[in-house]
Every structure is written in structure tokens, then in C-alpha cells.
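Reviewer 2 asked us to include a model.

Predict the structure of this chain.
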Amino acid sequence: MNHPSPPAATRVLGRTLQEWLSSLPIFALLVLTLVIGTGEMMHGQLLKLGESMFGDPQKGVQYFMLRADPTPPTCNPNPDIEAEIRKEMEAKQGKPADDLDALFGETKLDPEVLRKSKISAAAVCKERHALYDRIKDHVTPKLKAYRTLETSFFVLFKVGTDNRPLILLIMVGLAAITTTLGFHHIGIRPARYRKDFIVQNLTIAAAAGLLLYSSIRYYQISKASGIEVEHPHIYFIWMGLFTILLAISLKRLIKLPAHIPVAGEGSWGHAALSVPLFASMAVIAGLYFLLHGHDSGLAIYVNQMMELPNLFLNLGLFIWAGMLLKQSRLVDLFMNIVRPWKLSPEALTYIILLAAAVPTAYTGASGIFVIAAGAIVFHEVRAVGGSRQFALAATAMSGSLGVVLRPCLLVVLITALNKQVTTNLLYHWGVYVFALTSTLFFVASQLHRTQRVKITSPSEAIPQMLRQIVPVLPYVAVVLVIVALYEYVLDTKLNEITAPTIMPVMMVLIVIFDKLLSRKDKPEDLPEYAAHRQPGIESSIRYATTETIGHIGALLSLMMLSLAIGGVIERSEIMQLAPKEFRSPWTAMAFLLVVKVLLGMVMDPFGAVIVVSSTLAPIAYANGIDPVHFWMMVLVAFELGYLMPPVALNQLLMRQVVGEEEVERADKEVRHLGFYRRYERWILPTAVMTVGLLIVAFLPLAVQDFPVLQPVAKFFHYAPTE
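Predicted model (C-alpha cells):
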């Protein structure tokens, strides 16, 4: 949602109150999440380094023995063995036999055996004292300083690991409050008129009220169960969050903030479009559970987020990486390499989509890339003569193709919930799906292009392109150095597991490097789409973090309530109405395809994957659909749903980054043209993904069933070399 910022606020030590209470805590939580993610690999290396620096193999002293001050042994290394033997013999002789001893007959102490035992024990004791002395000799001031660092890091890492759900909840809570205060929740249209704001705040109040009531009932029911409530603070934080959201919305119903412009009264019909999606989901789910006598249901399903803290924390890190990308010139520098060819809008868009797939995969979800680079994509397509409608279509679709590539977080979630597939298999086939959908977009754009294909002669374009590659090389070097440091110093490769940790670190360092290179640039020289970029290192990271808060609050709130909608679908048993057996895999696939698209249209994919894994996936497997084939279809179906009403999340995010004025201008330009041109920004990406989905869903089945396609049947054996 795009609203003007509030008037200049009072600053304390150069920072606004919001930055102290929101940006700084979220930044600390993001850094803590990075520390937790890096903790295990770093702690392992700290132990290795400690061993190499302070271990003494010749004297049998290892670093783990030095991590705490040694405790002196209490045994006597030089006992009077003969005196102890006599003492034990006399004690045995003077002791009356008991009934238990009588069961085993008379036992006598052998002085020689006792002597050997005492000598052996004394030797062990001497060794313990000797080891204590050796360890004590190695406890130096240098060691104490190092082990303080190592153990402190371990404590921080362990406390953070043990409290991931709490960290996630605090992050989501702060972000949701900030997002609500800033009117940044995702809706079909931003609020402009008085009735829009009334309906928007009314629905947020209703959603917060339902969530608060359900959270209170969840705690009461848990406490009344007779079982000790685990982590009661989690319940209270949820209650506090929903109470604050309720108070904010009620206050705004009474009086809207003075800095928010109101364009007029508006209409109630238009106002319904400004309802935040998370609020409408909360109201629908909350009323369903209340009507079915399940007061705590809404809170239970929302709290499922705490069952997957790693996933949502990683998503927060990916969002941060995307906002840091916005602060750098990386996308601009890439476009400088392409510009000398003077490509047509369609050809340029194809190149952009191919290139955008990589950051899309490395930022975890398609929406994040649209937020991070959508404005640049729109600008570049317009700069080479593309129509506004085509540029909007390209922007909305720019993040849709890379979700099947390594190391996309959605694939990691699928494999975590479904043991029938692995990340290697899905990423392997994802490359082919990506090649298919990107090529389909190019073909579709050529069928409806408005200009003839243009391209500069290689003799002219290549020298200019090579000159533009030179400024990119330092950034490539930074990336390679960071990857090498992780791989060879921390023994950690960049993959789908480590990407959420490595990518934000990489982007922070790239932003620092970029600002050092561009510090002579003047802010007024920046193009309009880059006006958000800050001149300094600290201000860039701070601005990126502030943007991250709004997107974490908006996206994670939406995902959180998607889990609740998933709960409604699950408890309503609507999925049980689906046939368990079909006449053929073709009819099963057709049914599943339609259901997946419908789910993608109204649910966030992360929440939808959880629903599909427990309900529809078993139906696919039981009807002869290969698990890898099924989940590749699901990924494409969800991306198609991202582009289709009523939610069309990527279209909504595109409107947010491009601006409502550009979208309205685009609609006005084509109002007098034919149907396709009027709705090109909807039809083009939807048609491409629909055709891609049909091919992904049915081509493997056709290969299996039609003899004419048998020569390529081996290609669809879902078992690449691992």
C-alpha cells in the first residue's frame, strides 16, 4: 500500500522514534538470526582454531579440556597402601556377616588382590593430578580471552537456537504493528477515500478482535487441560500483539491520522477492495471456527507458524537481502551490459526474465524480487519503447519463473513435508520447467509484438558491452570471495540450506562495496526509479531494514492467516469430497491441477503447500502420478495463481512498486483498443503460465501412454544423477 510518510518526527540522537522502537530491534533480530544460522558452522571452526592454537597433543591436552578452569582432583596420589590394606582387612574381620552375604558363601579378602587394586588406583590418581597440572599450565591469559569469546558465542548461538519461535514471534509482532501503523498491508487496492479507510480499519479491528478472543480461549483451554502450559509467554505475546492491532484500528476509526490524505467520500463497493487480505482471511477463518464451536481454532492454526520458525525466519532474511539489493546498483549494472544491443521490448523482457530467475531463486519467493527490482524492470522495458501494459505484464511476471530453481525456499518446504521427493530431484526438473516457461513467454510476446525485431550489429554492440562488463567485475570478485570464505574457512557451501544465511551477509557487503564505489554520485542524478537509494553505507542499510519491516509485516501476516484458511479447508473436510480414485492418471491430474490453481489464487503458497501435503498429495500418489511430477505441477500452478484474481499477489506487488498512477495511466492508454491490448498485463503472463502448466501436467503422462512418444520416455524417468 502506498501512502505518504508521516510528517517529520522528533528525532532522538538522529533517529526517529519508529527507528528506535521498530527498525533497530528488527535489525538486531535479523542479525541474531544470521548469528544463529552461522552459529554452528562458526562454532565448529572456533573449536578447530582453539585446538590448533592451544591444544598440546604431546602432553595429551586438548582444547575442550581448557574451555573451563580445571577442578583439582580430590584423590590422594601418594596413599599409604599397606596401612589402607590393613584397615580394610580389620574392618572386614570385625564386620558381622549378614543374610545377603550368606547367600554367596563366605568371602575372604585377598591382600595381594587388594594391593594391586590400590596401586592401580594410585596410578590413576597420579595421572589425574598430572593432567590437572598440565591443563593448569596451559591456562594462559591468551587462552582465557579466546575461550571467553568462544563460549560467549556458543551461549548466544545456543540461546538463539533454543528460542527461535520467540525470536520469530517478536519479529512478526513488531513488523505487523509497524505495517499497520504505516498502512502497508497488502490489499487489492490502496485506500484513498474516507469510506476506504473506514472499511479498512473496521476489518482490521474485526480481525484483531477475533484473533485476540481466540488467543485468550486457546490459553484458557490449554490451562484447564490439567497439563502444564509450555512457554506461556508465547500466548501472552500473541494476546499483546492482537490487542495493540485492535487499539490502533479502533483509534483510527475514531480519527484518521492528519497526514493521511483523503480524496473524498468514495463508495462502499470500492472500499471493499481496500480491505487487507490478511484481515479478510482472519475474519473468514475466525467466524468459521466460532460458528463451529472451536473458539481456539484461529489461534491454533496461526500458532502453527511457531512450528516452522526456521522457514519464516529465513524468509525474513531473504526479504532483507531483497531490500539490500534495491539499495545497490547491481540491476542497473546488469542492464548497462544489455543496453548496447538496443533490443526490442519483447527481446529485452526475455533477457530480463532469464536474469531475474537467479535472484528470484536466491530471495526465496517470487514476490520478493518483484518488490526489490520491479520498478527497474518496468522502467527498462518502457525505455526501449514497450507499452505500459506490456511493461506491467513483464514486471508482474519477473519473479514467477525462478521459483523452481535452486535454492528456492518453497522447494525446501516441500521436501521437508514430503519424504517422497528431494531437493536435488525438484531442482533438476525445475531447470527444464524454467526453460519451458521462459521460452513460452518469448514466443507469446513475439506473436503480439508492436515493433519489428531490432538488434544492433555485433561489431557495434560487443565493444560497448565489454566496456560495461568491466564495472561489474569487482562485484563478481566480492561474491566469489564471500562464497570462497564460507566454503574454505567455514567449510560451508552455498546451497538451499545455507543460502538464507549467506545471501544477506553477501548483500550487506555488496552494499558497503557499492556505496564506497559510488560515493561521488549525487542523489539528484539518480533516475526516478532509484530515488529510494541512500548515499551512505549506514543510511542504506538502515533504509533497507526499514523497508524490510513493512514487507515482513505484510507478507508474513498474509502467510500466517493462510495457515488459518488452510485450517478451515482442513476442518471443513471439503478435500474429503474429492474422489480418492480416478479412472486414470489423466483425470486425476486434471482435477488436481484445477484445485491447485484455485488454492494458489486465494492462498499464499507456503500455507497452501502445508494443506496440499496432507490432503491432495496422497491422492496423486495413489493414482499413479509420480511425486516429482506432481510437485513440479504444483509449483507452476501456484505461480499461475499468483498472477490471477481475486488475489493475484504478484500483480498487487507490481502495483505497489510501480505506483497506482502508472497503472491507471496504462489503462487509460488502451481504453479504445481491442480486448487483448486492454488487458494485456493480465492476459499475457496468465496465458504463458497456463500453457506452461498444461505442458508440465500432461506431457509426462502423454509420453507414458502414447507409443509415438516412447523414444523420449527415458527422459521422464525422475531419477537424475545425484
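The first strand starts at residue 11 and ends at 12. The beta strands are 11-12, 15-16. We have added this to the supplementary material.
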